[in-house]
Write a structure and sequence with these properties.
By secondary structure, this protein is of the alpha/beta class. The protein is built from eleven helices and 14 strands. It has two domains: about 30-165, Cytidine Deaminase, domain 2 (3-Layer(aba) Sandwich); about 170-365, Dihydrofolate Reductase, subunit A (3-Layer(aba) Sandwich), CATH 3.40.430.10. This is Riboflavin biosynthesis protein RibD.
Length: about 375
């Protein structure tokens, strides 16, 4: 995976047109629109996880059958994808703009993209996902200024934006529970030893997953014993915010964390030295999500031990579960199973992805039908 961190003014990217099979009987223009939308989506995948509360968006501008501009939203507060693409295109008069998300029509940290599109002389806009968090004035505004607007839905692109819409509409981070377990469901042996259950390929993939998060959360015990870095160093320079839960306030930051410059949040009933402390007496996961959203976090990965994982499942405070299964059996007592309850309860999940890393398997489940 390549991650984009530079301005698009500094280079151009050569796209290789992917093989794309349109639905049977679909007209040619459908295949062309979907092809460019998928190429814009490739840009989204390169920037996912680095745009803060803003959605990652990809954009391509085509004129006379030639791609003349590409763009992606690189980080919160920077130019949006449409503006980046227009800047690269130069003369975009009469061109068609393809973007993964409906262009914005409001002024926030940057001006509205609709104005930039109109001023550039673009004649047609094709987008994959409607931004339901905003009103529909953008489409009407473009059409009122003579721009043709086409909604070209794409299931893969739509699924990608689920996390953004959930976070924005429910005003909380989108939550991924991540764990690595043996085939008999153990996170560690009876003595708490867990390094390394999974193989190197799986651990590399965890770094890719962390790159997509704003923050990674662990409990005080996991932090004290494992001294986890919780970064994405194997795939990018991004360092997610480290979040530590301490119900007693009895947590001492490791020296490496104090000097690292990484943003560290401790959720505690009292202030903790060398850390940004969110003070609360209420440690229900739902309350913690409120605090973290207020702190600017929209995507959160929970990597705690069995107690933390079980509590977040039992409180129904998660959106997806990512399990890395190692081909091992630990046995021993029932301690350190990744999920336990005081009484039996059934939680139904939906399998959305399977990946294999040598002999390890990663399963991704989401809530809902």
């Amino acid at each position: 995976m390549v991650y984009l961190t530079m301005s698009f003014n500094t280079y151009r990217v050569l796209f290789v047109t992917p093989k794309f099979k349109a639905p049977l009987g679909a007209p040619f223009y459908f295949e062309e629109e979907q092809m460019y939308i998928r190429q814009a989506f490739d840009l989204v995948k390169m920037t996912a996880g680095q745009t803060g509360r803003n959605p990652a968006v990809g954009c391509i501008i085509v004129k006379n059958g030639v791609i003349i501009g590409i763009g992606a939203h690189l980080q919160e507060g920077s130019a949006h994808a449409e503006v980046q693409a227009i800047r690269m295109a130069g003369d975009a008069t009469g061109a068609t703009l393809y973007c993964t998300l409906e262009p914005c029509n409001h002024t926030g940290k940057t001006p509205p993209c609709t104005e930039a599109i109109i001023q550039a002389g673009i004649k047609k806009v094709v987008f994959a996902v409607r931004d339901t968090s905003l009103d529909d004035t953008g489409i009407r505004y473009l059409e009122a200024h003579g721009v043709e607007v086409v909604h070209a839905p794409d299931a893969a692109v739509s699924a990608f934006y689920d996390a953004f819409f959930i976070s924005k509409e429910e005003k909380r981070p989108y939550v991924t529970l991540k764990l690595a377990a043996t085939l008999d469901g153990k996170l560690a042996d009876d003595f708490g030893n867990s390094k390394w259950l999974t193989n190197e390929a799986s651990r590399q993939d965890v770094h890719r997953l962390r790159h997509q998060q704003d923050a990674v959360l662990v409990g005080r015990k996991t932090y004290a014993v494992d001294e986890p870095k919780l970064d994405a160093r194997h795939v990018s320079e991004k360092v997610p915010i480290k979040v530590i839960i301490s119900r007693t306030g009895d947590v001492t930051l490791h020296e490496a964390d104090i000097t690292s410059g990484q943003r560290i949040i401790v959720i505690s009933p009292t202030a903790v030295r060398h850390a940004e402390t969110l003070i609360t007496q209420d440690f229900r996961p739902a309350r913690l999500l409120e605090l973290l959203y207020q702190a600017g976090i929209s995507r959160l990965m929970v990597e705690g031990g069995s107690s933390v994982i079980s509590e977040w499942i039992n409180q129904d405070c998660f959106d997806e579960v990512v399990i890395y299964y190692a081909p091992k059996l630990l046995g021993g007592t029932l301690n350190n199973r990744f999920y336990h309850t005081e009484e039996s309860r059934m939680t139904h999940l939906r399998l959305v992805d399977i990946q294999q890393f040598e002999d390890d398997v990663r399963l991704t489940y989401r809530k809902g039908q």
